[in-house]
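Crash report, auto-generated. Payload:
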Amino acid sequence: MSNPTNLKYAASHEWVRAEADGTITVGITQHAQELLGDMVFVEAPTVGRKLKAKEECAVVESVKAAADVYAPVAGEVIAANSELDSSPEAINSDPYGAWIFKMKPDNAADVAAMMDAAAYQTHVDSEAH
Amino acid sequence: MSLKQTPLNAAHRAMGAKMVDFGGWDMPVNYGSQIDEHHQVRNDCGMFDVCHMRVVDAKGAGVRAFLRYLLANNADKITLPGKALYSAMLRPEGGVIDDLIIYFMTEEWFRIVVNAGTADKDIAWMKQQAVAHAPGLTITSRDDLAMVAIQGPNARAKVWQVLPQTKAATEGLVNFQAADCGTYYIARTGYTGEDGFEVMLPKTQVEAFWYALNKVGVPPIGLGARDTLRLEAGMNLYGQDMDETINPLEAGMAWTVDLKSERDFIGKAALLANPPARKLVGLVLLDRGVLRGHQKVVTRQGEGEITSGTFSPTLEKSIALARVPNAVQIGDTVQVVIRDKMLAAQVVKYPFARNGKGLL
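Recovered output after restart:
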């Protein structure tokens, strides 16, 4: 699966979709879910929480391991995907559909400055070596 | 340092395995979904590459007496050819050097199967003890042998499909018994809580055997599912649930430590002098989350620690083995510290699942 070109990416393997209303939707990438394997638990951040960029804010756990999810930019959490409580495996089957949380960024330019799909792929390839 | 490879390495890659560094070995963690592989073994059967484990042959006059002294379980319990016995091998101070299985071959030959990560130190220890206590013995690492575990309710039937010539000798085997079938040494043992065989055979033939099993519908299973299967079955993992610093009586191994007979064995005096203060119990997480090794357990009787934790695909809950103070009772509710939270877990009897079914 290639990384959708309409998304932005963080080095810590989150994807970000900039919505028309200025908010962003956040999930973890295909590469991240593949590294972790079968997902069994997602702990999303509390709505209303103010996050700094790169702050640990959610946890995804597979059978194998727990991994932190980081805030891609500074801002406030405005929604958490409660469907993942009962079906965390959606992250495996549809990583770019199974969003984890939504934020209102403090600064839209922070989102624009994130990696695009090609830059992220280069980053993933470099981590493999 | 380059990783060690089993003779099935190329087969794993050809079958789409995701490979990981497992204690210095390049091993398959899964071939797709670890949870699917887990259910496959509980409900049907699957095969595991366990070539990294080591077969050791101890031969010579007096080998039984030597093992009687070397091991915490009593080698005298096995007297029929092929009978197997699970035992700890202890330090004089009582800590666990390894857990292993011995097979009675003849009065002058016992076979020992040890863990991969401990094999070299085990053999060194055995040789050192043999020099002191049974100088006529030979301890030989059988590096020419490979091992495959086929596990699940349909495992034996699948092995017989591939090796029909071994059926007569192996269909009467009870649990923890093996048959010498010439090229193949076939034991009704395993590490999953399911029926099945562990087959030892020449390294040169293992790849053909692996593909032949696959051809009759036995899929490969990775180390990921091996861990969830063994944990559900309540089986210890060396290095995690016990090691050289742990008293076996504090690791749920009392059933394998023979303190009743008169015989002396290495570690016995230390065990008698240091009665266990803690015990291994099962935990089931009541809150949402996943129990993991090294998480702290808070009980009314004091603190404990999770030794192995995971998500149980059979129970669809998180389960763990934990070492806690002796006074903790089955049915108690305890707290587990997970990141910045205290989550509730119930103390339960393990195994958690065996023979296709959850036991809670």
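Post-recovery validation: Chain A has one domain: 8-107.
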